[in-house]
């Protein structure tokens, strides 16, 4: 978006995939982007803090764009405040899919399963929670288990540490009384976990409001629409949600009460289109990216007031 707005940019590449960033940089060069318009910095993980501070504090840098965890985003946000630099942040999520009593249950189950396991769950838009109206809870959970069991594997975590984190969150949930409807504490490989559905989650379990970043989802029963809305909003995050209903009016009435930057109706929580803005609320960041909204983020509005010569335009406001 910054490039589309006419800005030059400095990219701090991920230390986990430096060659991928280099290849992308080479593509821009080959496409004719002038030297110096796109600049890339490669750094070791142990140097990340000092490199980030050098970037943020540099007088030529006028805005920061960060995508990552809420914990790191908080640190970078404080650094930007120190140097009076505006920042666009897309942080974590704990995306709920709300299954209303008039939903197409089979379709919703498939979408929730896919939303939970795409990219091994390593999406901030991942379907981390499924909140189901009690009248369809039993039927839906059976369909969700069937849909999840049809997925033999969910790919791989980017690192073993990431897979281990997801495993430990599930292990903590089980130790505090949770049960697995399918999957469980099982590695397929050292970087891959079995797709898992969790239920009976206690209030003090890490999984209740911590991103797993793994191929799992948690299922909750809602007494009615108001309870489903309350359970959905009971999160520190507010990035993306979904509502499933065969009634557009019903879905809309629920969706407008959800505290999320985007709500998909009858689709994946991770559904995205270049034409729609991406925005987070609460602990999921601030600002907007994509399309014209993203371009506005990297533009500076200016007010010009024209006064014809020869006229007395003195106006004093108190």
TrEMBL record:
Signal sequence segment: none
Task: Determine if Iron-sulfur is one of this entry's keywords.
Answer: no
Q: Which SUPFAM superfamilies match?
A: ALDH-like
**Record-annotated Aldehyde dehydrogenase domain positions:** 2-303
Q: Name one GO molecular function term.
A: succinate-semialdehyde dehydrogenase (NAD+) activity
Query: Mind listing the GO biological process terms from this record?
Result: gamma-aminobutyric acid catabolic process
The highest taxon in the source lineage is: Eukaryota
Ordered alphabetically, the record's keywords are: Oxidoreductase
Q: Which Pfam families match?
A: Aldedh
Q: Does the keyword Transcription regulation apply?
A: no
The name under which this protein is listed is: ALDH-like protein
Q: Which organism is it from?
A: Lojkania enalia
């Amino acid at each position: 978006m910054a490039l589309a707005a006419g800005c030059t940019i400095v990219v701090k590449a991920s230390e986990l995939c430096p060659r991928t960033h280099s290849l992308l940089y080479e593509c821009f060069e080959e496409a004719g982007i002038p030297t110096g318009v796109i600049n890339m910095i490669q750094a070791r993980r142990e140097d990340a803090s000092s490199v980030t501070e050098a970037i943020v504090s540099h007088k030529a840098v006028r805005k920061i764009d960060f995508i990552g965890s809420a914990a790191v985003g908080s640190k970078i946000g404080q650094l930007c405040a120190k140097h009076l630099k505006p920042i666009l942040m897309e942080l974590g999520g704990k995306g709920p899919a709300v299954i209303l009593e008039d939903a197409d249950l089979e379709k919703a189950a498939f979408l929730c399963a896919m939303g939970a396991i795409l990219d091994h769950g390593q999406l901030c838009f991942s379907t981390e929670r499924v909140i189901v109206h009690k009248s369809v809870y039993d039927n839906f959970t059976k369909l969700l288990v069937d849909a999840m069991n049809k997925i033999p594997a969910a790919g791989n975590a980017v690192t073993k540490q990431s897979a281990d984190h997801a495993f430990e969150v599930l292990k903590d949930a089980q130790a505090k009384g949770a049960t697995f409807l399918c999957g469980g504490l099982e590695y397929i490989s050292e970087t891959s976990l079995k797709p898992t559905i969790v239920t009976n989650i206690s209030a003090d379990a890490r999984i209740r409001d911590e991103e797993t970043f793994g191929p799992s989802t948690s299922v909750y029963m809602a007494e009615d629409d108001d309870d489903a809305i309350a359970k959905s909003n009971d999160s520190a995050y507010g990035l993306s949600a979904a509502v499933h209903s065969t009634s557009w009016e019903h879905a809309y009435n629920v969706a407008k009460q959800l505290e999320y930057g985007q709500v998909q109706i009858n689709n994946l929580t991770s559904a995205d289109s270049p034409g729609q803005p991406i925005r987070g609320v609460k602990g999921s960041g601030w600002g907007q990216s994509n399309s014209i909204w993203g371009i506005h983020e990297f533009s500076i509005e200016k007010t010009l007031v024209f006064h014809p010569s020869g006229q007395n335009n003195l106006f004093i406001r108190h």
